[in-house]
Design goal:
Elements (H helix, E strand, L loop, with lengths): L1 E2 L22 E4 L4 E6 L14 H14 L8 E10 L9 E11 L2 E10 L4 E11 L2 H6 L1
Antiparallel strand pairs: 1-2, 2-3, 3-5, 4-7, 5-6, 6-7
Length: about 140
């Protein structure tokens, strides 16, 4: 199932209502229990000359791991995010971003993710803790 940016969502990473956002789209693979995105990000996302900014790499991992909560049918917010930068990622390089559920402990969901190049080499790895929220209650605050 394709997870396109929702036109009413203002999220910088995955929303369709943010003209300056990345408007990232993902695929939900129910059989493998994975969320997958394929991207080729341009110069506007670079940090060091010719390489993706570390914050953009963290954002990609946060987005894909957060989307893994769909396998529980829950809405979550990020509580903790850890990123391991293994190799530089060049701008305009084709990458695959993948996230999956590691475990659940009550309202706490623990997810993992990685970014790979076209050859399958892992370039960055992430781990996140996400807290389940009541979306209606959250919107009122």
């Amino acid at each position: 199932m394709r997870l396109d940016p929702k036109p009413e969502n203002p999220c910088f990473g995955c929303g369709g209502a943010n003209a300056r956002g990345m408007q990232l789209a993902f695929e939900q693979n129910d059989e493998r229990q994975r969320i997958v995105g394929r991207f080729q990000l341009g110069d506007e996302y670079q940090g060091g000359s010719g390489f993706l900014h570390g914050g953009i790499i963290a954002l990609l991992l946060d987005e894909v791991m957060g989307k893994a909560s769909r396998f529980y049918g829950e809405h979550v917010v990020t509580a903790d995010l850890r990123v391991e930068y293994l190799r530089p990622i060049r701008v305009d390089q084709e990458i695959v971003v993948e996230g999956f559920v590691a475990r659940r402990d009550g309202r706490q969901l623990y997810h993992e993710g990685e970014i790979r190049n076209a050859a399958g080499n892992v370039l960055a790895r992430g781990q996140g803790r996400f807290v389940i929220i009541d979306r209606e209650k959250y919107r009122k605050q």
